[in-house]
Amino acid sequence: MPPKRTRAVVQTGARQLEMRDFPIPDIDADTALLRVEACGICGSDVEQYTGTIPVRLPLIPGHEPLGVIEQIGDRAAKRWGVNVGDRVAVETLIPCGHCRACIEGRYQVCRGRGGMFGYAYVPLSHPPGLWGAYAELMYLDPFSIVHRVRPDIPASIAVMFNPLGAGFRWAVELPDTGPGDTVLILGPGQRGLASVIAARAAGADTIIVTGLRRDAAKLELARTLGADHIINVEDEDARKRVQEITNGHGADVVVEVSSYATQPVAEALYFAATGARIILAGVKGFKAVDNFISDLIVVKEVTIKGAFGVTSRSYEAAIRLIESGRVPLQKLHTHDFKLEDAELAIRTLAGEVEGDSCIHSCLLPAL
Ligand SMILES: [Zn+2]
Ligand SMILES: [Zn+2]
Hints:
It is a single chain. The chain is of the alpha/beta class. Helices cover 28% and strands 24% of the residues. It has twelve helices and 15 strands. Strands 3, 4, 5, 6, 7, 14 and 15 form a seven-stranded mixed beta sheet that branches. Strands 10-9-8-11-12-13 form a six-stranded parallel beta sheet, with helices on both faces. Strands 1-2 form a two-stranded antiparallel sheet. Strand 9, helix 7 and strand 10 form a beta-alpha-beta unit. Helix 5 (161-173) packs across helix 6 and helix 5 (161-173) crosses helix 11 (312-324). The radius of gyration is 20 Å and the shape is globular. The two termini are 21 Å apart. The mean pLDDT is 96. Bound molecules: zinc ion (2 copies).
């Protein structure tokens, strides 16, 4: 028999988290309960915690769930193709299936259920309340999208389907990266490193990663994961280096994954080759970009695409890569945290914990 109550971390305000316990909801034919094995932590968790991303509070954070199906209704089991005991990765967004975005195949930006509807973004007031993965058990809505993941992979590695899925969508799917392409990745954080792995898996020719002086260790890791060249933009002339590496052509694909800083967006146009594809995935708090020279887009016939979220296709590519064991993903994983240490996990990723530096981390509710 499952326990009668379950624990979860609740966010009540900016920088306010508390542990609470909840009754376990009943499920019906179309829904399920997930026993959370791991919840990945990313920059969005930091922004949600500090209040930079407006969310309807109180709620249970945690939008990168990996777990085992604890209970499932008959129709859900049939529709999703999973059963009790199966390990699944759960997509953040819960699409409505009917809005214009969904019908046009852009469900990752669906707003058909009111605002951004997905795990970690629905308040406790919306029954049954267990809408986040900072918890032992999470509710699975009828419109959930789940992907099976092989059970023998350590949970803290399997849960990387999220950053890696982003890498595949941003560095491969959207810019249509393939053999012969030079890919330039601006920013060596969790998403930038995932982009290196994805671009390498897609057969990119040359991969270049830029970062700051303080990113030295991450830039070295980028090299280990498949980058051919790394550039420290504070000590080197990045424009000149990109021109040298590419024999004066520039990069075919530029992936901008830095957060807050707007300068890389303006610089991306200088790094771009004729006909390049630039993907903008780092959010900047709605700031204007200084020195943005639009003529460079015109004269080089550059295509700029925005990337928000991840698609099923890219999640599947990520899961297959994780299962293949081909990439030393454990080198990206730096921290495991207990559920009660959610706040420490977020602050560590944010760089607020003196002397500790984090790339990929997760909460493990069973710890
Ligand atoms: Zn995330
Ligand atoms: Zn929709």
